[in-house]
Each structure stands twice: as C-alpha cells, then as structure tokens.
C-alpha cells in the first residue's frame, strides 16, 4: 500500500467519525427541543386546569 492510499483511508475514517458525531449531537439537540415543547404544553394545560378549578 502506498502512503496516499493510507492517507485517504485515514481521511475517510475521520470523516465518517465526524459525521457520526454530528448526527448524534443533532439527535440530542432535537430531543431536548422536543422535551422543552412537551414541558411547555404540559405546564400550560396544568395552569388552565388550575384556573378552572379555582373558579
């Protein structure tokens, strides 16, 4: 194997690793965003329920 071949293999593996890490971080961020939306909706419904019970 030549040095160029090894360099391309290393660059390919590095790119694959960065792609995988990017996908994982994106999934984590999307989960956090979804959790925040769910919590906001639950809090809103609880506040509405508490208002109607108080009347």
Architecture overview:
- The structure is a single chain.
- The protein has 55 residues and is mostly helical.
- The chain has one helix and no strands.
What does the secondary structure layout of this molecule look like, with pairings?
Layout: H1 3-54
Low-confidence stretches: none
Please give the oligomerization state of what you see: single chain
Largest sheet: none
Q: Work out the helix count.
A: 1
Rg is: 24 Å
Taken as a percent bin, the fraction of beta residues is under 5%
End-to-end distance: 80 Å
Order of helices and strands: H
Describe this structure in a few short sentences.
The protein is mostly helical.
List keywords for this structure.
mainly alpha, 55 residues
